[in-house]
Write a structure and sequence with these properties.
442 residues; mainly beta; Immunoglobulin-like; 4 domains; 5-stranded mixed sheet; 46% strand; elongated
Length: 442
């Protein structure tokens, strides 16, 4: 069997195929966003140094020709701008080459040797570019070895298992016989597994693989293109804002500034505030604290607002305030609902051990809420306040009766009725904690 047919039957050497990457042929130069009152800027693309002559064949999506052109922003044409550079049809690409190998070593029985191959900076057009050169392989030993290849896209080809003598008989392998049609740029791995009973030596000689000179067919375009945004002139300051002017300690608020036009992006921010707070975000969030017993007013300041078009300062020292009310910790509230329901002063008592100025159902510090015998088994609604309704802590307290709660007082007497009947008389002198009673025969 000749080498070509044997290779086709083994399908091994297709392992060198990798995915296309036109960035190796042409790249756009990133451009920052600009203000419409800026002067002209240069929009550029580059090609690899070995094919610098191809730069004159660059065609832009706006019709410009060459590696760069001048763009002048216009305040009547704001918004996103996109310019795509492409190598024009028929662009001559010089010959290129890369080297595979050398790899050599010894593999113990049952072990696997893995080698990595990295290829870069090859301008390759699938379906047009071709390969030339050959690959020399040699293995020592006898028996079966298995070959597999990991490709740049994460897939693995193989394993292909074959006798060492058969594989050696194929070398050197003309690269043109291997059926490679895709871009060689990328990283892939070759793994050799020794399935023989002894050591196997391997040697992949350094082999120069050439991509002969070719002319492009159609357009090869940069991805991504040149993209940027043209902003309006410097905005004016309107106001500084906070999302809520009254909050509970631990609650989050957002700072912001209103500009004209609204949402103008060509500005930079510098905020300052209590406890060393600083931020350059347009809308920073803060979580003010208050560990005291009284509301605290904290001030945050938009220290500077600067136009990035020209560096001019739009405004300075713009304060905004937020009132922070203390946090009400339920663990600091004492509940006493153990009084005797029959006592004249029977009550539920709630005490705040947090701050003496906290109010409980409108009463400062401690609230004593009277209850009546008929309230036994119901709930008392409690609301603790630090001065701001949004921070109130509300809960229910059950009304309970101690074990000495008073039972009803009843006297039973009987009266004979005839010879075989009697009448039961019940006299209730006090209901105690009961609101009603039932009498059942026993």
């Amino acid at each position: 069997m000749n080498k070509f047919l044997l290779l086709c039957s083994y399908l091994f050497f297709g392992v060198f195929s990798v995915h296309s990457a036109f960035a190796q042929c042409i790249s756009s130069v990133p451009q920052n966003d600009i203000g419409c009152d800026n002067g002209p800027i240069t929009i550029s693309a580059t090609v690899p140094s070995f094919m610098s002559g191809a730069a004159s064949n660059i065609v832009w999506s706006n019709g410009a020709v060459g590696p760069n052109f001048t763009f002048t922003p216009n305040c009547s044409q704001l918004g996103p701008k996109t310019f795509t550079p492409c190598l024009g049809d028929g662009t001559p690409i010089p010959a290129q080459s890369f080297v595979i190998g050398p790899f050599n070593g010894s593999i113990a029985p049952g072990a696997t040797a893995t080698q990595s191959i990295n290829v870069s900076n090859i301008c390759f057009q699938p379906g047009v570019s071709q390969y030339a050169g050959s690959l020399a392989l040699n293995f020592t030993g006898s028996g079966t070895i298995c070959l597999s290849v990991g490709l740049p896209d994460g897939s693995v080809q193989g394993p292909i298992c074959q006798d060492i003598a058969t594989i050696n008989g194929l070398s050197p392998i003309p690269i043109s016989l291997l059926g490679i049609t895709s871009d060689p740029n990328g990283t892939w791995t070759v793994s050799i597994e020794n399935q023989t009973g002894g050591n196997v030596g391997y040697n992949i000689s350094a082999s120069t693989i050439t991509i002969p000179a070719y002319n492009t067919q159609g357009f090869i375009c940069a991805d991504p293109p040149v993209e940027f945004y043209v902003f309006g002139g410097c905005p004016s300051f309107v106001s500084v804002n906070v999302s809520k002017t009254q909050i509970c300690a631990g609650e989050q608020v957002t700072l912001s500034a209103t500009l004209n036009p609204v949402g103008a992006p060509n500005v930079s921010y510098q905020w300052t505030g209590p406890n060393g707070f600083t931020s350059t975000s347009p809308t920073p969030t803060v979580t003010p604290a208050n560990t005291g017993c009284t509301p605290q007013t904290l001030t945050y300041t938009l220290q500077t607002l600067t136009c990035t078009n020209n560096g001019n300062v739009i405004t300075t020292n713009r304060p905004v305030s937020v009132t922070v009310y203390p946090f009400i910790d339920p663990a600091g509230i004492t509940v006493d609902n153990t009084s005797n329901i029959q006592d004249p002063d029977c009550s539920v008592t709630i005490t705040s051990n947090l701050c003496p100025n906290f109010t409980i159902n409108g009463q400062t510090g401690t609230a004593t809420l009277p209850v009546l015998p008929g309230d036994n088994g119901t709930n008392v609604n409690i609301s603790v306040s630090a001065g701001y309704l949004g921070c109130n802590y509300s809960f229910n307290v059950p009304v309970t009766c101690l074990s000495n709660c008073a039972p009803p007082v009843a006297t039973l007497t009987t009266t004979c009725q005839g010879t075989n009947q009697f009448l039961v008389n019940v006299n209730v002198s006090a209901l105690g904690d009961a609101s009603s009673y039932d009498i059942e025969p026993s």
